[in-house]
Amino acid sequence: MGESANPGRRRGAELEHAIYAATLDELAANGYGRLSMDGIAARAGTGKAALYRRWPGKQPLVLDALRHALPPLPEPNPERSTRENLADVLTAFNDVLAGRTLIPGIEFIVDMLHEPELRTLFAQQVIAPRLASIDALLHEGVHRGEFDSGAVQPLAARTGPALILQSFLLTGEPPGPRELDLIIDTVLHRPAPPQR
């Protein structure tokens, strides 16, 4: 019996969302290397033909699923300090790497480094906007007089995300709140407060 014989089958955006969810779940369970259109279709409860009508293979499907799953960048709140807004951006980045969003997390991200198009997408759509946001926050903080222009070093915007990633690589765990505070202090070139 063909797919069209099922009167209750999902269509359009509902089916696409189910396929995206299945793709991300398969990535989390099996990694990109073992990801298959068969596995995605089975997990989504649809036929492979429904996938191939929309995507010619797994790479474009994964790219679309990642775009769909990418959490929005936190909007700066003018009522809060630059440090608090910076904490929001770095916490959101930490959550992506920790797998606390729909994106599978650090294991998938490391796996993705072997796929140039996926790596480029991650760099352009996850990393670059966050670096631009951090850079804008730092310049705004200087403009507001919250800290001096020494905080805006050439690589200052990269420092926070790099230290978060390094924490994962060294410990296998996301940095906790205290460590994130230390990372923010490092980005802002402030001495860490004494431990109690």
Automatic annotation (TrEMBL):
Domain HTH tetR-type: 13-73
Residues annotated to bind DNA: 36-55
Designated name of the protein: TetR/AcrR family transcriptional regulator
UniProt KW keywords: DNA-binding, Transcription, Transcription regulation
SUPFAM superfamilies associated with the record: Homeodomain-like (SSF46689), Tetracyclin repressor-like, C-terminal domain (SSF48498)
Cited Pfam families: TetR_C_11 (PF16859), TetR_N (PF00440)
Highest rank taxon of the organism: Bacteria
Gene3D superfamilies recorded: Homeodomain-like, Tetracycline Repressor, domain 2
